[in-house]
Design brief:
The protein has about 350 residues and is of the alpha/beta class. Helix content is about 35%, strand content about 15%. Helix 4 runs parallel beside helix 5 and helix 4 packs across helix 8.
Length: about 350
């Protein structure tokens, strides 16, 4: 039940005797542009409001989120990060058996186990590019109460088309199986309309869609995510949650960033540019096999190098570069790492060090 994730700057400072300002963090998939400037200004302007409680259930943000997504307020729930909503959802559904891909985001299985449920794993094969086969998912739904899918998947970056997901959701609906689609990185991908199913929550009572605002808008310290589902499910989640879990500044951030169209466009442009550069550069380094990326991170097989993922992460960390050692992901050994897409200067620094080491 250990929670292992990237982005632990404090641990790196202590373990490697580094200065925080000298660390380049490729281990957490956060927008390298940083938060929108308007957001930082508004937080400074509203510091005095820290003396008040945040709005219960984030009602104002829900309303604005509904307008942004063209969904009803009653179909949305705001969370202290998407992870809070994963645990909240499992607490409400109480699944005795869940289907989880391997590898994928670890909190799905941890949430299920925290409520006494069991987990069935569907192992993704490298020979197939770690792609999720919907027919295999369907074939493994026997006695399953809930299935988790991450789209794009973390850490592999593979995508599932909307048409395939519709087939799964439709079949699962007839079998009384909840389908949870985690779209935490959907804002980073090209043509998200071909993959998102958030518009289908009004059509299927067994569908719940998760999203994160912390990654795209670079506010992980504030913790902000949201989910979309049926009015009945959302109502149960609201009743079961802790009061005031979303703080005032997170609520304020959500209201502001949704309006920042220019920031959204610039992020997608810059991420796409740097993603292509970093991917093509990694392919040229002997011993590395990067998988085609879709979001703001790249999954890499280092099996042909002379290093394990643990060793390479350690060497780079001592140089002030943090990468995600993927050995903690279920279904992966010590041959895989994940790196975030960052600025050109940071990407080049990583590439130079990888060339020198490998």
């Amino acid at each position: 039940m250990e929670h292992i994730h990237g982005g632990n700057i404090t641990r790196a400072v202590e373990r490697y005797n580094l200065k925080e300002e000298n660390i380049i963090d490729f281990s957490a998939n956060i927008n390298f542009l940083g938060p929108p400037s308007q957001l930082l200004e508004e937080i400074r302007n509203n510091l005095a409001k820290i003396i008040h409680y945040p709005e219960p259930n984030s009602t104002t943000l829900k309303r604005k989120m509904g307008q942004y997504l063209d969904l009803e307020e009653k179909n949305l729930v705001i969370g202290n990060g998407a992870v809070e909503l994963i645990y909240q959802l499992v607490k409400v559904i109480k699944p005795d058996l869940a289907l989880v891909m391997a590898p994928t985001f670890s909190e799905y299985e941890l949430a299920v186990k925290s409520c006494g449920g069991r987990v069935k794993y569907l192992r993704l094969e490298e020979e197939k590019g770690f792609k999720i086969d919907i027919e295999e998912v369907v074939a493994n739904l026997d006695r399953v109460k809930i299935v988790f899918l991450c789209n794009p998947n973390n850490p592999t970056g593979t995508l599932i088309k909307k048409s395939e997901l519709v087939d799964l959701i439709d079949y699962a609906s007839r079998k009384d199986v909840f389908v949870i689609i985690d779209e935490a990185f959907i804002d980073f991908i090209d043509n998200p309309g071909n993959y998102t199913v958030i518009d289908l929550i009004v059509r299927y009572s067994n569908l719940f869609v998760l999203r994160s605002l912390t990654k795209f808008y670079a506010i992980p310290g504030l913790r902000l995510g949201y989910g979309a589902g049926t009015e009945e499910l959302i109502s149960k989640m609201e009743l079961a949650r802790d009061p005031w879990s979303v703080n005032f500044f997170a609520q304020l951030a959500g209201e502001i960033v949704l309006k920042d169209v220019e920031y959204q466009k610039e992020t997608r442009r810059r991420i796409s540019l740097e993603r292509e550069f970093l991917y093509n550069s990694l392919k040229k380094i002997d011993g590395l096999k990067p998988f085609p990326p879709s979001a703001n991170y790249i999954f890499i097989d280092i099996g042909a190098s002379n290093f394990s993922s643990i060793e390479l992460a350690e060497i780079l960390a001592r140089r002030g570069i943090l990468i995600r050692d993927c050995s903690s992901y279920r279904g992966l050994g010590e041959n895989y790492i994940r790196v975030a897409v960052k600025s050109r200067a940071d990407n080049c620094f990583l590439l130079d060090n990888l060339r020198e080491i490998i």
